[in-house]
């Protein structure tokens, strides 16, 4: 079975580790995530997934940051720089 590409809207803010909704989990494979805000615009997304996708995480400015997941047995990390660091959209293919 071929998995489907996705493009979803989210509202990920810095609140420690959070479980994703069933809808997000079903579409993306992402089970848990965390957004950490750095002291000088350097921020980090950590996420755990059951799927192998090339993920793109979009911040509130429309900038995006990629992570190509091909091993699903650990947390993945994306470091990024942004004036508006909340994650509002995720795509995967």
Question: Which regions contain 5 or more consecutive residues with pLDDT less than 50?
Answer: none
Mean pLDDT across all amino acids: 94
Give the number of DSSP strands.
Answer: 8
What is the N-to-C order of secondary-structure elements (H for helix, E for strand)?
A: EEHEEEEEE
Beta-strand content bin: over 45%
State the oligomer.
single chain
* Termini Cα gap: 15 Å
* Class from secondary-structure proportions: mainly beta
Strand ordering within the main sheet? 1-8-5-6
What general form does the structure show? Answer: globular
Continuous helix count: 1
Helix content: under 10%
- Radius of gyration of CA atoms, rounded to a whole number: 12 Å
The major pleated sheet works out as: 4 strands, antiparallel
Condensed summary:
The chain is mostly beta strands and 93 residues long. The protein has one helix spanning 22-28; strands spanning 6-12, 18-19, 30-36, 42-49, 54-59, 64-68, 76-81, 87-92. The chain has one helix and eight strands.
Task: Provide a descriptive summary of the structure in words.
It is a single chain. The two termini are 15 Å apart. Helices cover 8% and strands 51% of the residues. With 93 residues, the chain is mainly beta. Strands 1-8-5-6 form a four-stranded antiparallel sheet, covered by helices on one side. A four-stranded antiparallel sheet has the order 2-3-4-7. The model has no long low-confidence stretch (mean pLDDT 94).
């Amino acid at each position: 079975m071929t998995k489907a590409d996705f493009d979803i809207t989210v509202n990920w803010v810095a609140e420690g580790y959070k479980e994703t909704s069933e809808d997000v989990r079903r579409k993306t494979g992402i089970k848990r995530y965390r957004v950490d805000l750095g002291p000088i615009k350097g921020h980090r997304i950590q996420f755990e997934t059951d799927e192998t996708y090339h993920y793109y995480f979009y911040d509130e400015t429309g900038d995006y940051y990629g992570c190509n997941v091909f091993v699903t047995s650990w947390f993945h990390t994306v470091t990024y720089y942004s004036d508006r660091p909340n994650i509002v959209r995720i795509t995967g293919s």
